[in-house]
């Protein structure tokens, strides 16, 4: 076994690897960027070395620098985590050339699975079922259109390189093919530097079921399946294991297909073989097809760990250090059911726009496993993925596990940034999901209901008012003037709507709040406030931002009347950056006439591109940013001419 390893990653996965390494007595080395100097993974490591600027290209993608640090600190191996350099075969070769061990598969295995078209051909040869489609090298638009006709609409256009939903387009009619192809190729070129695409049959009621495999370079085993069908724009949201509705026959067929895939490329370490499954008529052994193989540890690996009792990171370290597979196939069993929900800093009402912010409060229930790379006081950076945590639960049955997930999400508390917590809670309570009727289109079909704003009650507003006026820890003499109880008021806003909360403080343990013409009583007994006879929710504050930790977190802003008056005079004609990021492109020019909804610029932030649109018809007065500019949130990018009248 290794004495010391370097983790070439950051955030949640770096912390996850360090926890297992520490439990195994293996010392760890962290690398970090300028943006991560005070991060959790740096604090957890035995040693930490600075490697560059906040942009991944200046730090976590600097393979040569990472290898240099590993050698200088005496690390014997490098664990890549997921993302960044984890599936870069050139990095694997450089690690091995430096006399170090790469904790993962060979460069050859990564290359064989790196291009979807070549991987599918290889899987076909190995007897693994593949989706009908065209995976060849001819990229002529007319030829591809002809292949789409042969396959039969609807079809999917998919970028050969990369993933994450980039370079992917659904085409339902022949007339839409040419435009969709151009769009997919353009996005693929931007994201991966490779415009090539493949064409596949689109499965009408698709489920995304993947098989966890583990190999030692010669033989492999599978650790059963995960269902990752609950997706939004091809991004996984909630994963579970085992898959609902799975039969023993289907599990055996899929598991053996995964093992054949791994053994066909001499796979070593943890990997995932992803299948698309036709869920229109139950799970059938002739209704699943190979999509791709992820040659690394997956984000959702904890659900497999909880149903099998296997620590996959421990297995990674043991096999990489020269041990054979820690278990035989017949030794592996499933116990119970597990769910994982991905908690992100993102603004759901604004189209799931990634968010930043300093976490003023962060708390998870003890009954759930929370894999997180941040703590209260940490900042969600615009440079990296805005994941806050993975909330993972286990239960004896699917129903029990889902109930535990719903409860865990209700009790998770985040302050300082907007999150998708309410969205996750709505999914956990979704009737179809509870029944196991899942497919990749579930979220899109029910998006309006799933993203409905939570109901804000009078007691929530009163709780925010108590914090804003510093009345939670009321002293004995609080609220009394010389002759009568004191009246105070504060103006607050929630979801853009302002309201005034007026309070009459009757003493240290009783307050009468009048809001929106209604009155509610707050009383304290045995040190605990109750509002409207219900326990006051936990509340956290950061400056003027107040978070009431109920209904998955309700945000209120205390408004200074002077600030409000100043803001009222602001320029409504300015298109601003909604978050810090890189200006990728600017389409506006001074004097140009634009229509409402026209795309004026593209901002790249949080590993995604965001189109900035004209809010009204008008004429561009001034362009205030250029492609390549790094801007802060609120920076003016384009200004329209004042409207007449």
TrEMBL record:
The keyword Transmembrane does not apply. Residues 566-641 form the Lipoyl-binding domain. It holds the Pfam family Biotin_carb_C. Gene3D superfamilies: 2.40.50.100, ATP-grasp fold, B domain. Residues 120-321 form the ATP-grasp domain. InterPro entries: ATP-grasp, BC-like_N, Biotin_BS, Biotin_carboxylase_complex, Biotin_carboxylation_dom, Biotin_COase_C, Biotin_lipoyl, CPAse_ATP-bd. Residues 1-448 form the Biotin carboxylation domain. Keywords: ATP-binding, Biotin, Ligase, Nucleotide-binding. This is Acetyl/propionyl/methylcrotonyl-CoA carboxylase subunit alpha. Its cofactor is biotin.
